[in-house]
Specification:
Order of helices and strands: HEHHEHHHH
Distance between the termini: 44 Å
Helix content: 40-55%
Strand content: under 5%
Number of strands: 2
Strand order of the largest sheet: 1-2
Radius of gyration: 17 Å
Shape: globular
C-alpha cells in the first residue's frame, strides 16, 4: 500500500503529518503527570477515560497512584519501549495509548485518522516511509528567530 499525503507546501504541518510524527511515541517514557488525568478524572467527573482498555488501566494505576507518584514513569509503548516500530499504532487500536493525544487518534472519530492508524498498525514499512518523509518535511520548516520568535524555557508557557 502506498500513501502519499506529504504536500509540496514547505510549511504544511497538517493533522495527517502529526499522526505520522506521533509514531515517535513508539519509544520513550512519560511521567505520571502526563497521563494521570486519564486514570482518575478524564472528563472532570472523577472517572477514568472510557477509551482505556481495562487491564491496561489497572496496570497503569499500579504505576501511577491517584495521589503522589507524579514522577513515576511508564513507557509510551509498553511492548517494545526501546524499539522503533509500528507497535504504538497496534496498541492504540487496542485502547492502550498512554497519552490522551495518542488514544484520540483512534477515538476521535475522524475517518482519515482512524484509517491511517490502522494502515500503520498493519504495515510497518508504510509507517517508516511516511514517518521519515514527515520528519524531513518538518525539518525544512524555518522557525521564527530573533524578535519574531522565542525559545521557551518551559514548552507549556510563553516566556
Amino acid at each position: 500500500m502506498r500513501i502519499d499525503i506529504i504536500s509540496n507546501n514547505k510549511k504544511d504541518v497538517s493533522d495527517v503529518r502529526v499522526i505520522f510524527v506521533s509514531g515517535a511515541h513508539t519509544i520513550g517514557m512519560a511521567r505520571c503527570t502526563s497521563f494521570k488525568q486519564r486514570l482518575y478524572n478524564q472528563d472532570g467527573n472523577n472517572q477514568p477515560d472510557s477509551t482505556l482498555e481495562g487491564t491496561y488501566y489497572n496496570d497503569l494505576t499500579k504505576v501511577c497512584p491517584e495521589t503522589g507518584g507524579d514522577n513515576n514513569i511508564s513507557p509510551l509503548d509498553f511492548t517494545s519501549p526501546a524499539r522503533f516500530d509500528n507497535t504504538y499504532f497496534k496498541l492504540i487500536l487496542l485502547g492502550k495509548g498512554l497519552l490522551t493525544s495518542d488514544q484520540v487518534l483512534m477515538s476521535g472519530n475522524v475517518v482519515e485518522t482512524m484509517f491511517l492508524v490502522k494502515a500503520f498498525a498493519e504495515d510497518d514499512a508504510l509507517f517508516f516511509d511516511q514517518f521519515a518523509r514527515s520528519m524531513v518535511k518538518m525539518g525544512n520548516i524555518n522557525p521564527l528567530t530573533g524578535y519574531n520568535g522565542e525559545v521557551r524555557k518551559n514548552c507549556r508557557i510563553a516566556n
